[in-house]
Each structure stands twice: as structure tokens, then as C-alpha cells.
Amino acid sequence: MNSHWNSYLNRKLSRRDLLRVSSTGFGSLALAGLLGAEGQANPLGVRAPHFPAKAKRVIFLFMHGGPSQIDTFDYKPLLKRDHGKPLPFAKRRVVSAETFNLLQSPWAFRQYGQSGAWVSDLFPNVAKHVDDLCFIKSMWGSNSRHGGALLELHTGSDTFVRPSMGSWVTYGLGSENQSMPGYVTICPTQSHGGANNYSSAFLPAPYAGTPVGSVGVPAREARIPFIENHETPRNLQRMEIDYTQAMNRQQLERTGPDAALEGRIESFELAFRMQSSAPELQDLSGESEVTRKMYGLDNPVTEDFGRQCLMARRLSERGVRFVQVSHTYKWDQHANLKRDHEGNAREVDQPIAALLADLKGRGLLKDTLVLWAGEFGRTPTAQGSDGRDHNPEAFTVWLAGGGVKAGLSYGSTDDYGYYSVDKKVHFHDLHATMLHLLGMDHLRLTYRFAGRDFRLTDIHGNVVTDIVG
Amino acid sequence: MLALCGSAMAMAQGPEGFFEKNVRPLFIAKCNGCHGGANPAGGLSLLTREALLKGGSRGPSVVAGNPAGSLLMKAVMHTAGTLRMPPGPKLTDAELANLTQWINQGAVWGSSAVKDAKAETAKYWSFVAPLAAKPPAAGAWAKNPIDAFVLAKLQEKGLKPAAPADKRTLIRRATYDLTGMPPTPEEVKVFLADDSPRAFEDVVERLLASPRYGERWGRHWLDVARYADSNGLDENLVYKNAFRYRDYVIQAFNKDKPYDRFVQEQLAGDLLPDTGDLKTTFERWTATGFLSLGAKMLAEDDPVKMEVDIIDEQIDTLGKTFLGLTLGCARCHDHKFDPIPQADYYSLAGIFKSTKTMENFKVVAKWHEHVLAPKEDRDRLDAHLAKIEAKNKEIGKITRGENEKLTRAAKQKVGAYLLAAHEVRETPALQPLPADARVLIERDASSFDNGNAAKPVEPKKPNVPKGAKGPFYAEYKVTVEAAGDYQVELRDEERGAGTADLSIGGVLVKKGEGAVQNREASPDAGGWAPLGIFRLAQGENVLRLQHKNRFPYFSRMRIAASPLAAGKAAPRTLVQIARHYDINPSILEQMVEHLERSNGAAASVLYAFENFGKQRPAGEWTSPAAKLLEGFTGGTRQALADRYQTLFGEVAESAPEGDDARKALRELLTEKFGPFRAPDDAREYYAPSALNDLARLEEERKTLEQATPEFPQAMGVRDGDKITDLPIHLRGSHINLGQMVPRRFPRALAGENQPPLGPNTSGRLQLAQWLTGKDHPLTARVMVNRIWRWHFGRGIVPSTDNFGRLGEKPVNQPLLDWLAVRFVEQGWSIKAMHRLIMASNTYRMSSTYDERSFETDPENTLQWRFNRKRLEAESVRDAIVTVSGGMHLVDGGSILTYKDRQYVANTSKRGGVDYDRPIRAVYLPVVRSSMYELFTAFDLPDPSVPQGDRNASVIAPQALFMMNGSVVLQHTRKLAERLLAMPLTEDGARVREAYELALSRPASGPEVDQALTFLKRIEKELPAEAKDRTLLQWQSFCKALLASNEFIYIN
After folding, report:
1. Minimal CA–CA distance to A122: which of A188, A64, A74?
2. Residue B136 class from Cβ within 10 Å (0-12 exposed, 13-18 middle, 19+ buried)?
3. Which of A396, B93, B395, B1046 could form a Cys-Cys staple with A73, CB 3.0–4.6 A?
4. Which chain B residues are Cβ-neighbours of A94 within 8 angstroms?
5. If you average pLDDT over every residue of chain A, what do you get?
6. Is A99 inside a domain boundary?
7. With an 8 Å Cβ cutoff, is A114 touching chain B?
8. A–B: how many Cβ contacts below 8 A?
């Protein structure tokens, strides 16, 4: 090693935490400074949270379309009594469409567990886990359309393209797996904001969600972009890379130290490792028959979402920081509420329950934060004879694991579930709370772009401390 | 960020502070939605103290110091009778307490949000016009003033410029820099052989004259113009005509359009004085696409919010692109760091409010496009569209009239509908024939005797001849020996097979749903499904199945004698019931559906009928209509139905004012989705003359539509129909409006005394002229800084899009200012700036590492060497495609196969765009939120925000692309073929050619050896069955070579 190198190394050593960086196995100093800021050498290296974290990772179960709170988890006895009557107070100023009188839920509700949480007959399996769940019944957002609401849920903004929450979390904490992306989204939706819902926007590219498959692609065929080609045998590809790397090293000798050039050498090694470990994602053959059955892989109804949930567990287990699975754009029942909510629930209920049980059984639930959410709820008033309109004013999400208070029901809606009234929680508050559980202060997790320090919560957000265990 | 954006108002103390903290937010959240804006509800506005004291139609709302005497308090406490505010849940106790305290304290209002521009005693550097400093006296190294400025800074730090780059490096650098493509080996050879002192200048001139130049530098501009080919924010609609703006930009760079003119055209091309030349006019209209290209929330339910959001996007883009200022910050409050008060923001917003960007703000909204055709053609088009619209109106009128006839008749027969619906609901479902039933006739579906359905009838098919028009039917002749009741069944074996109407002997007996089972009702396994028990005549009967646009699949039909006990009447179908009562079957279906949903609800006006004969708790009926039937003792269902019919008849036209009961009845008749709406298939019941008219009109409309003249269109703006100023939006909310502000330019830059823009123009042209004034402190600086950034990889002001206080300061302001002044002096010519910069020794430095300089200035901020640059996304791809010899050069155009405003397909990976097309990457579509993976991987900036300083990250997905991307695989194969096709005898020569093509340099001896060794090793590793072995070896070599750092890093 020549003197250039020593000088280079020494300088970096004095500035950066070499030991820790090296231990990630990412290629030590190579990526130092690539982000252009004083910071972490490896963009995906593990970063310490602001304060001790309750949760280390997130699994987000996204129910695209807007599941109805009053038909799932927000039990409203008066809705049954007053079925057919007009809503006794004003509807919101801006609505997507006219709705009419109150429409009772077609499903019966029952109480479950020690906590006595009410769950409708749509979710008999999830119901068995209510004592592990923390319901937020008083969610609200500001946008009554899918696109705006999806963006609000994922990025906090329904006006601009902003980094998604998964990107912020990965930016804040890095990833514990250096052969996988830090933020993975399985079969994401391509409509209603599409990739903007998992993009890193102005955050550096490594924090963008890596799509595995896409909506409409069966989970069993979902792949990371460019992760394979069907022409080049693996051994040949390795030889090609070795040859490239030899040329690269020779060039480095000529140019002298250059962080970007060495970083690129490392990036090929990482890519090759990713490519080698990617098949593990899809290959569920190592899972026991019991597990596969538990997730419903033996049933065509639950197979696809079950596979997504099982992949999510495997990714989380391997240290991927943020995993999203999507039940894509099925929950939008302006009509056929009874038939389609039932069909949707049947597809996800068993897999979600399996995921919760599995995480718990493996001791992962305590530091894995699971979020179940749609982009809004639905109106208690009827649309047509068997449907409900979008309702951003009131809906239910639930969290599990990751340090939330289990068996809690937080906040409430009015007698019919039209407005959230007590202890209202906006998306910004949900985001602030999730970051808090992950050990981060939403006011301090900032990124400077175009002369401004941006936050996931923009200028909003309050941590809902009451749900933190 | 709280500190940055938190409202200054909230920090005020005392009663004002109390109001801002506890009261104003409450008004905004709960009241101003109705009691704000221009026409507040009840005449009561809660926007100012004065308005509140004055009150609305009910008199003063607040009596300062007297909460108990204030109507506002009574309304929110729900002690003012029916006046209960706000609608929805009552305010919380804390909120009520705050209001009480506020009124008690005298109802003190907060400070006005309207502030004058801050008096800036010491102006920030970027707000002062640049003065050209005299270049410092510098050493012999300095070849032109740029060098002198750079050298002076280097010397301050004891740094020395790097040695000049060699000629190969220089031509590769300059060619990629100006064209984004590699030099050809031939071009390198010519340059090496040219010993003249002007050799490099000649290369620069050649490159500037190449059309490839605009494709490269136009793309830089497209970054700041946040260019994209689709909307992509919420609803991803195709901007099919955006490419015209892109091509305009490329041409502008190629023609070296002066920058001031370039700016004016993009902001106000439609307002520039007419030259009489159509081509120029169209070009200018196209240029205004700049204002329209942004990502928009096209499905925002609140049209006012949608409009202000679009204006905001325009202002934000304008600020960053031309001024390097984050004007968007002033939407909600005065800018915290730059002297842009909120009032100035709304002064600019007024200009864009007076500009037509959108045709409408409906969900999903439609943006405006210019028709690029001569006036007479545009008039012809307008006239044509008006004709189509007239047809639409006529069709609408007939349809409405016929619907009205249908529903009016129905509303007179409510009693009949009730009885009929009751019968439908009471009719038990038919059971399939028992296994031992004696089937008299059984036929295959395909065996029909007559009809226009396709034969054979098959599963999963629409079963109609291609291109044929419906309705589609099949007739089965069946002969029975005796007249009587027979059960007809179909064997249903496909879920979702569809439905059909059944007629027997020309009489409709069963409609749609149920004739053939649909998916909902279909069991998983197929089986026999009864259609009904029908009367057949002795001898031949014709059974006809019919559907509007397809023919449902079923496998067989069978007929057996009625299984019911002899003498028992066959249950009637809905159609038969409707016929019996002489009512409309489709409306009857709606009534049945209504009753199903209502299910005897206590709130239903039909409660008495629905619960007739049932034991229900006394007093349960909660509908106001209850009193109309009080004491009714008709005794029979029929009598009750008659009574209802009479009552409904009375309210068929209107309900008496103040009569809740009759109003409730009437609601059932008029409800939009109620039972008496016009049914979906209303047309089946129209009068023949109306049907004839409709058919004719629709045919005429179709002919007109097909004959619509088509002209090229371009996204863009024009002045709006209404020129207007805007009020300040308090806290950025379009519901809380403050003081009106005139349209004008930011006062910190343009001064307090600005001539009014007047009522006849939006003011965009004046805005553009002001921006491009010779002495404007920002416009030229921002642009020369970008030009510098795009040449050197780093701006003199590194935050290229922010010249405000939160941006970075120039590392060499004298240089920046000198360049800015020079830029204007040279007629805003961008090519002149290239010549100037590329003639400098600064540009020609090598990128060599120097330990001492690196220690002092590791980031190379002062330019002691040339920055090694990674190729940008487009160049990576263009280089690969060029080196293989596969590049097809085109001059603009669009490869999108979508129609304008069509949704980008969101299921398949790439939405049907052919990204492998071997054209320059600048001509590939930029589909927002579903971008080409290569663009995403290699840092194409998010196309929703202006970005003059692209990232050059190094991430694994880039490596994956080089390893597995289809473009790489195709073109390395092509390159291998190209090398093998060369008339060369030895492989070493091929390796050398490959290096010249890919790296613009010869391979060294050891490199050739290394390559040959590699080829041999690959040969051994290739699978035994592999064909084209030589080609595959060479492809492996090419893959490795193009994946190398040297290929995509330019010294």
C-alpha cells in the first residue's frame, strides 16, 4: 500500500468509526463520504437510535382501498338500532360522493380475549390475538381520495412527493442485513401514487423501498428488479465480476485513492451477495408443513397473502428494517360490501393471525412493530344499497408488538363511527409514534434538502404516549 | 422544522397569544368551513373580530366581555334552541372554556398576518445585483479570467492547479460533457493527430454544433423543469404531449436560444407579441408546458384546494428554477429566512390564479392543451366540438324526458309496487328437479334452432361472433304433448357465466339475473339451476334466451313436468308479477332491493307496510311519516298499500312546507339511489319514437366524433378568462382568507413601488420580463452557476437551487459574479459560456489525486483538480448502446403508445413502454412513480421537484443492472458480434479495438494478455451444450469491460 493510501486511511480513521463500520462487512471505508456529508460511511450500516428503542423493525400490513372500521373493529351498537335513519349530524364538507342513511353492519360483533375487544365475524382468526393488539380507533386523515390518502399514510404528505416512512426509518436506523435492501415492499401497488408510496424522494437512493414484485404479480413470482438473468450461469457471472474487479483495482492503482471507485467495487460484491440470497426470499421450502399450513399456503384463497406474510417474517428475521406487504386495492366497497369485504377478509385473516403467532413463537414480536392499516375508513352511511363511501374522518388501525401496549383500545369515534372524536390520532401522530417506538424523535430525524430540514411529520405530529408500553 | 415553520403568531404572548393558540385554530378547524370565505353561512363570518361583533342574520354573535350574552356561546353550548353549532360532535369542555375565557377577556383578536416586506438593512449577497470584478492578476497558468479567479482562490489556500489532462482524457471528457456520448475511435484519432493550438477549440465547436449537444444539455434543463411524461402524483395519467416541450427544450439548446428569451417563452410564450409566424407561435405555446408539467393531485375532492395546490407547485418550481428561492415556504407564513412575506406569495399566486392551466378541477381533472393549428383550423375544431356537444344535449334531453315519464308513472303506483315487491320477497326459491324426475326434453346449449349467438356455446367465451352487434339470442323449439306447467332448468358449470332473459312464445317470463346463475350465486361445483315453472302450450313452443352484449355459457337445458302437486299454481317470476300489477319490472327490482336493505327499519317511511302482520313494539316507528297512518284501520295488506298509494300520490309533485311527515314520504320518491330512480336499463321501456330518435342522434354523434379533426396538441397555459387578485390564505388554508393583495413581484427584489399589472393580463409576461432584466440579481447567477455545475460536477454555489439564506454561499463569488455579468453581456448565450469555460485551463486540469491538496481541500471545492464524474443515467445507457453500434439516432418524438390522458397501466412492470428501444435515453418516457428502473437506479432525480444538482450515488442496484439488465445483455452481445465481425486475424487486436471503443484508449500489453486469458477460462467454463461458444466468450469479456469503473467514470 502506497503512501497515498496511508494518508487516505489515516484521515478517514480519524473521522470515522472504523471498527463499527468494518464490522458490518460492507467494505469498510469504501463508501465513506459517498453521501457527501459527515456521517455514516455505509448508508445502510446500523445507526444507533436517539434513545433506547422498543422496536427494531417494522412489518406494515397495508389494506389498500379502505377497510370499513365499523364492519371490522369499531363496534357501533347504535348503528344497528338506527339503521335506515339519517345521520343525525352534518357530514364532512368535502365528500367523494353522496351517501344516504345509516347502514348497519352485515356482520355480528363478539368480544374476545382478556381485553374483551370487539371484533366482527370478518376476522375470527385475528380476533384470537386481540390481547396482543393495540387498536387506535380514532384515526383520521385529511384526504378523501385513494391517491391523496395513500400518500398521506405512506409519506405524510398529500400535496408533494416526500420520502416514505419506510425510507425515513431505514435512513434513521440503517439495516441489519448487508446482503438485502433495508426496506422491502412486497407486491406494492402501482396506482394511487404508485412508487411515490415507497420512494425515498430526496433521501439518498439506498433508502428507497425495494419492490419485490408488483401488484398483479403473484407473490410466488415476485422478484427484485434486475436480480437475475436467464442467460448467464452463476459461475460465469462470478468470473466476469472477478475480471471487472481486477480491472477496477488496476485502475485504482493508477488514479490514487477514490472513494467512489472503491465504493463501486464494493457495490458489485453486495449486488452479488444480494443476488445469491434473493432466492431465499421466495423459497419457502425450508418452512415446515405446519408453518405453511398455518399461513394458509395450502389454500388458494389465502395462498398469495399468506406467502407475502411468510416472506415478511423471513425478511424481518434476517434483519430487514422495514417490510411492507400489500393487499392491493381490494377494500374499496362502494357496493357489494357484504360479498367483497367478506372475500377480502378471508384472504388475509388467517395469514395475519399466522404471522402474529409465528412472530410471537419465535420471540420476534416483542421488538417487531406490526402495523395493520388502510388509507381511510368507510362511512356508516350507505352508498347504494350495499356499500359505503370513503371516510378519512374516522378509521381504525392496529399495532402489535414492538413495545405498544397490548390489549388496548385507544381513542373513539362518535356513536356511528363517522367522526373520530376522542383522542384523535392523525397520520402524523401515528408516524411520530412509530418513530418513537423505534427509538427516534420525529423532531430530530431530519434531512436537509433544498435548504430546508425535512421531517417525516413535516411541522406536525405528536407521539401518542398512551399506547407506548 | 418546528422552529422553521412553526407559526410566529403562536409565540405571541397575552390575549393575542391566547387567541392565536386556543381560539383561532378552533375557528379554523370547526367553524370557518362554513363561516368563512366570501359567502359565509347565515351571513356570519368568523374571519375578523369586526365581522364577529357585527354577526349575521341572527344579530351580533359576540358581545365582548359577556360570554353569557353572546349568541356564539349559546350556539356552541347548545342552549340556543335548534341552533347547535358546530354540526357534528359538540365542542369539548376545554374548548368551551377557552371560548368563554376569550370573550371574557374582551374577544381580543390576533395580529394581522399581513406584514410588509422586512426592512432589510443589510441585504443578503444574492439579493444584490452582481458587479463584474476585475479578474485578479494571476500567474502565467491563467489562460482566461476564469483561471485567474480560480487560481487566486487556490493560492489563498496554498493550493496548486493539477497538471493538464492528456488529449485522450480531454476529448473523452469534452465529448461526454457536451453530448453525453463517447467519442468514436475515429474522432479520438483525428484529435490526437491535430497539432494546431486550436485543436481542442475545434473539438468543442464540432460538439456544440452536433444535435447531440441539445439532447445532453436539454436534459440538464429538464431536470430543473421536473419534466415527466405522466402526472404520477395520485392518478397516473399520461402526459402524451409533454414530449413536445422536451423537444422544444432540446431545440432551444441546439439553437442557442438566448436564455432570457428561453425564460420568457416558458413563462409567457402565449403572451409574447405575435410574430405572424405560426411555427414561432406554436413553439412559444409549447414552451409554456413548463408551467403545466408538474405533478398534480388530479383526484382531489376539494376543487379549490386542487387549484391552490397546482398554483403552489408552479410558484415553487418557478422560485427554484429561475430564482434559486424556496418561495413555497411563504404559502403558510412569512418566509423565516428569506425576505419573502406571505403577502408576496399571494401576489404571485394571483398571477397564476389568473392563468389557465386547467380545463376543470373535477375528479379526475383535465389540464389545458394548446391546439397547434392555424386559427381557422382551431375555429373549425371548436365548431365541430360544439356540434358534438349539441348532440349530447339532445340525447340528454330525450333521455331525461323518457326517464321522467317512467318514474312519474311509477310514483303514482306505489301501492302496486309494494304489493308486488312483497310477493317477490315471499316467493320461495325453486328447488331443482328431484333426481327421479322424468325429464321430457334435454338439449345441448349449442343445439339452438335459431339465433345469432356463436356456435358452439363454450365456457369462458362471450359466445358472440366477432364484431357483431347485440342483442344476442338463441331460440330452442320444444314440443310438449299437453299444455301445462313445466319446470325449465339450465346446467350451469361456469362461475360468472353471465345472465340472460328468457321469453316463451314471445312473452318475457324472466329477466336477467337468475336466468343463468352469476358468480355470486354459483356454487363451486356446477349443477342444474331451475329458471322457473312456466306454462307451455300444446305442441311447439319457442324458448328464447337473450342478452344485450354476450351470450352466457351453460351446457344443457332440460324440461320436466311441474313437480308441484297437481293444481298448485306455479310461483310467478318477478317479470310475471310486474306484468300482473302492470308496473315496471326494473323499478320493481329496485323496490325489492330497497325493502331488503331497509329490512323493516324503524326509521323507514314504509315501516307499517314492511311490518304488516308482525308483532312489533308499540311506538317503535320513528319516521315522521308515522303520524300519517295513525289510527289507520284498513285491516288488509291491500288496503294499507292503497293508503300508501294515496299518500304518495299527494306528494308526487311536492311536499307542503314544514310538513315533516310528507317531506319524509317525498324523499323516498326523489332519493338519488332510491327505488324510484330511473333504472339502468330504462331504455328498454322508452317509447319507440324516442328510441328511434336516440338511435339516430347517437349515430350522428358517432359520425361526428369519428370526423373530429385531429391536430397536434401541447400542454401549456394561457391567460385565464378572469383576471383576479388573491387574498392571503391564513396558514395556507383556502378556507381562511385574509386581506387581498395585488398581483406583483416579490418586493425584496422588485421594490415597493411597482406599476400595477392591470385588469387585462395575468402579469406573466411582465413577470418574465422582470426576471430577465439585465440587473436582476438572481436569474443570471442561478443559470451560470448551473452551467458551471453541469461542467464540473459541483456548483460555485453548491446548493444550485437555493440561493437563499439556507442555501450555501458561493465558494468563489467574484468568479460567479464575473460569469453572471459576462453571461448577460454575451446576450445570454449558453454556448458562449461553454466556449469560455472549456477554453480555460481550469477545465483542462487532470483529475489526478494529490495528497497535499487532498489534505487541504478533500472535497475539491476550490477546483484544484477536475472532478472525476460518474456518467449519468442516460449516458450510462447511451454509452452501452453506442459502443455496441446499436444506437439509432432520432430527432425527438414520442414512443409512448398510450393515448393522451390515459392511465399508465399499473399492473405490468413497465406499463407497456419499450425501454429497450435503442434510441437515446432522453427520448425514453419519464413515467412518474413508475420510472424505468435504470433511471431510478442511476439517480435520475424525482421528476416532481426541480433538481439542478443530481446525485451520483453508488448503490448495489446499479451493479445489478450492469450484471442482469436486458439492455446490457443485448448490447454486450451486439458488441461481441461487432468485434468478431471485424476483419482481424488475431484476438489481441479485437481486445484493442474493444478498449478503443469503450474506453477511448488502447489496451496495454498486460491488459491484452489478461483479456486473452480470461477468454480462455470462460471457454473452459461454458456449459458443454452451449452453442455460439466464441460469441459467448466475447460477450463475457464485453460484459466485464462495460461493467468496469473506467467505462462509467470520466476523468
Report:
1. A74
2. middle
3. A396
4. 301-302
5. 88
6. yes
7. no
8. 309
B77 touches chain A (CB under 8 A): no
CA distance A325 to A187: 7
Average confidence (pLDDT) per 10 residues, chain B, 1051 residues = 32 67 80 73 82 84 87 86 77 84 83 42 82 86 96 95 97 98 98 97 98 98 97 92 98 98 98 96 98 94 93 96 93 85 96 98 95 96 96 97 96 96 92 89 92 87 84 94 93 72 93 50 65 94 90 88 88 95 95 84 88 83 86 83 94 90 91 87 94 96 96 97 95 89 95 94 98 96 98 95 90 97 98 98 96 91 96 98 97 93 68 89 93 89 90 87 95 98 96 98 97 96 91 97 98 95
Q: Which residue ranges of chain A lie beneath pLDDT 50?
A: 1-40
One domain, residues A364 and A430: yes
| Closest chain A CA to residue B590 | A385
Q: How far is A272 from chain B (nearest CA, A)?
A: 8
Look at residue B860 and give its three-state secondary structure.
coil
Is B903 strand, coil or helix? strand
Beta-carbon separation of A193 and B234 below 8 A: yes
**pLDDT at site A28:** 31
Q: Domain range spanning residue A429?
A: 49-225+288-467
Cβ–Cβ of B1043/A82 closer than 8 Å? Answer: no
Q: Are residues A73 and A111 in the same domain?
A: yes
| One domain, residues A299 and A214 | yes
Helix H, strand E, coil C: the string for B69-136 is CCHHHHHHHCCECCECCCCCCCCCHHHHHHHHHHHHCCCCCCCCCCCCCCCCCCCCHHHCCCCCCCCC
Give a yes or no: residue A40 inside a domain.
Answer: no
pLDDT of B120: 43
Q: Could you tell me which residues are beta bridge partners of residue A455?
A: A446
> What CATH number has the domain bearing residue A303?
3.40.720.10
Please, which residues 890-949 of chain B have a Cβ atom closer than 8 Å to chain A?
903, 906-909, 911, 928-931, 933, 936-937, 939, 942, 944-945
Q: Residue A318 has which C-alpha cell? A: 434476517
The reported pLDDT for the residue numbered B491 is 84
Final residue before a domain boundary, out of A236, A256, A283:
A283
CB contact under 8 A, A147 and B907: no
Which residues are CB-neighbours of B150 under 8 A, at least 6 positions away?
Answer: B161, B812, B815, B840, B842, B862, B863
| Global confidence as pTM | 0.80
Q: Are residues A369 and A450 in the same domain?
A: yes
Q: Which ranges of B180-241 does DSSP label H, i.e. alpha helix?
A: 185-193, 199-209, 211-224
pLDDT of residue B496: 62
Domain count within chain A? 2
pLDDT digits (tens, 9 = 90+) for A348-368: 999 999 999 999 999 999 999
Question: Is residue A127 assigned to a domain?
Answer: yes
Flag if B957 and A103 touch (Cβ within 8 Å): no
**CA neighbor of B362 nearest in space, from B298, B421, B316:** B298
Q: Tell me if A158 is assigned to some domain.
A: yes
Using the Cβ of B860 and the Cβ atoms of chain A, whether some distance falls under 8 Å is answered with no
At which residue does the C-alpha cell 415553487 appear? B316
A186 and A66 together in one domain:
yes
Query: In B, which residues are within 8 Å of A446 by CB distance?
Result: 1
* Beta-strand runs (E) in A76-116: 109-112
Which residues in chain A are closer than 8 Å to B908, comparing Cβ atoms? 216
Looking at chain A, the number of H-run helices and the number of E-run strands are 12, 17
The verdict on A53 and A75 lying in the same domain is yes
| Whether residue A161 is found in the same domain as residue A306 | yes
Q: Do B849 and A268 touch (CB under 8 A)?
A: no
Query: ω before B145 within 30° of 0 (cis)?
Result: no
**What is residue A381's predicted lDDT score, i.e. its pLDDT?**
94
ipTM score: 0.78
Do residue A179 and residue A242 come from a single domain? no
